[in-house]
Amino acid sequence: LVMAGTVETAIRSVVAKGVGIVADFNRKHLPQTDHPFLTGIHQPLTGEMTLVDLPVTGTIPTALDGRYLRIGPNPVAPDPAGYHWFTGDGMVHGIALGDGKALWYRNRWIRSRAVAEALGETPAPGPRNGGFDTVNTNVIDIAGRTWALVEAGSYPVELNETLDEQTYNPFDGTLEGSFTAHPHRDPLTGEHHAIAYEATDPNTIRHIVLSPEGKVIRELPIAVKHGPSIHDCAITARYAVILDLPVTFSMKALIGGHRFPYAWNPEHHARVGLLPRNGAAEDVIWCAVDPAYVFHVANAYDAPDGSVVMDVCAYQTMFAEGTGGPNGRNMGLERWTIDPIAGTVRRRTIDASPQEFPRPDERRFGQPYRYAYTIALPESDGEQFLGATRLYKHDLATGARETHEFGAGRYPGEFVFVPAHADAAEDEGWLIGLVIDLPNETTDLAIIDARDFAGAPIASVRVPHRIPPGFHGNWLPEQRG
To answer: How many C-beta neighbours within 10 Å does residue 25 have?
Structure first.
């Protein structure tokens, strides 16, 4: 068996090199045009900065002692040929708050091999998981340590407090393969659950569990077909929830020179898997769902009748047209009720307005909850994905929706809910995120009182340049020993 595996690996390596040569050739012959995710609001920054004593409007709550970190793509040497927003070099942005002040802002590229070569530096140390080491999608706290994450390839990158020390780290040697950008922490057990996939293995996904200490204690392979792109997952008290939806690996896109080789695949049957949290692969309960794609789940929980309730931002299709970034009609916020007995999924629209990046109070992950926060998307499909100026607060108990409007030319990214204190009620706290002021080419870190959602931010920190739209951000409180 070992010899067979070695031979298979060697064959795959030769094939991959051949495909790579063809892809590089075709990429050089793609049209050289302005790319919507490299221009305008998305134009990359050209360097790194350290700024101190940032100007503050309003009053920063003294309870906010820590760092807001956000990561996204920022190519060090932008090349529109074959570029996809999801594949750009990762850059972390951080703003430290303490004593009611904005102490510093820093932005740092993740020192992948390609970034380090472009900058004339040494790559970040640590082992790599194959050849792909771009990390650009999420930055979170796991077991009191800071981790930058990506799906489908690279190991995580551990960061120090100032973002300057970076190490590729498979959770201290306990992770075998790729990870995900969206592990979900169960607040009742302290474990993180993840569903991971790898572009080089289209027939397998993995359920990964991290202990409260941040070590991998489960890495269960599960058989799939076609190489599905699984960006997010969910947990309940009973299950890890798998989204096996019709965006799959595309050899046509890869050979054509496109750096993100995934596309809408109508031949791939859409389904949701309910994996008992300690179950084997054959225990997954697969439930059919109408074709759709989901990047992000707000939350999920077990209902008293035995079904699973999961709230998602859904798309009619994804990557069916265009190769530069997300596209397809956004169907708004939906509730999917998954019946493990009938093997079905019932979809209901909560709010049909286009929206994304749903976030709950994460102290309620995997449990019944009341509030979800999202950012609005443009009503018409925009080339640059973003373009609306609003946030939404959904009361899932009453069906009410509140709106926070930032005003013309001011575009928010994902906002995260931060509870005011350990025992705070579900919406007792703040929403924190970045807002681009495009006309002035500046950015604000806005802090909104979740209970005065439509009101003006209680505080705003000004960053004197435009931080390009990124993916995910989180509040990491200061660790006091």
So the answer is: 11
CA 291, 239, 139, 171 torsion: positive or negative?
negative
CA-closest candidate to residue 316, choices 383, 371, 381, 241: 381
Q: Residue 252: in which H helix or E strand, if any? A: helix 251-255
- Would you give the DSSP letter of residue 28? H
For residues 355 and 352, give the distance between their C-alpha atoms in angstroms, rounded to a whole number. 8
- Taking alpha carbons only, the member of 125, 194, 221 closest to residue 166 is 125
Divide the 481 residues of the chain into consecutive groups of 10 and give the mean pLDDT of each group: 37 46 45 79 97 97 98 95 90 98 98 97 96 96 98 97 98 97 98 95 97 98 97 98 96 75 95 98 98 98 98 96 84 98 98 98 98 94 77 98 97 98 97 97 98 98 98 90 45
Tally Cβ neighbours within 10 Å of residue 447: 24
Nearest Cα neighbor of 453 from 422, 417, 410 is 417
Give the integer Cα–Cα distance in Å for 157 and 142: 12
Inter-residue contact 430 to 451 (CB < 8 Å): no
What's 228's DSSP letter? Answer: B
3-state SS assignment for residue 182: coil
pTM over 0.70: yes
CB atoms near residue 283 (< 10 Å): 12
Tokens encoding 132: 């792909």
Going 344 to 307 to 396 to 361, the CA torsion angle's sign is negative
Paired tokens of 31: 């049209």
For residues 155 and 186, the answer to whether their CB atoms sit within 8 Å is no
Distance CA 88, CA 137 (A): 10
Class of residue 355 by CB neighbours under 10 A (exposed 0-12, middle 13-18, buried 19+): buried
| Residues 457, 361, 308: CA angle, nearest 5 degrees | 140
For 145-179, give the DSSP string: EEEEE-SBSPPPEEE-TTS--EEE-STTTT--S--
Q: Rounded distance, CA 153 to CA 166, Å?
A: 18
The number of beta carbons lying within 10 Å of the beta carbon of residue 210 is: 23
- Distance CA(240)–CA(217), nearest Å, equals 15
**Edge-to-edge strands of the sheet including 192-198?**
184-185, 192-198, 201-210, 216-223
How many Å apart are CA 245 and CA 231, to the nearest integer? 10
Phi-psi region of 387 (alpha: psi -120 to 50; beta: other; left: phi over 0): left
